[in-house]
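I hope you will forgive my troubling you with a question about protein structure. The full record is reproduced below for your convenience:

——
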Amino acid sequence: MNLNEIKSAVETVDREVEFRPVGDPTGWFFTLRHESSQEVQECMRRFQAKVRDLTLKRKTTAYQNAVTQHEDQLHVAHVAGWRWEKGDDDKKGRPPFSKQELRTVLNDDQLGWHVKKFLDEEVGSFEDFLSRSENS
């Protein structure tokens, strides 16, 4: 194997996954990015720079707040979009995707924890993001 073959073997692509909190279909599909995507890597770089700065200044409370904020920012970076099986319809509780709408969902007292858990589980598998050739 040469470097080009290895590079193509680890190429990741966005993937779509249905949100199924208790196994039942919801018709709500998330398009997720892998950790290696530019958006997620940029989120990680910003957080690491902030942590270095706060550590040098010995600001432990600010550091703890930064960790909490980073968790939400990382969830937002992992989500490229969503779609509804029956189409967007705000009046029926199926809002179109936006980062602000995603933040609203993540901060919801009842739904937020479940969506975060779902996202954490779905972005954890490298193999699920690998691009597949027609032969594999």
Notes: The chain has one domain: 14-122. The chain has a mean pLDDT of 88.
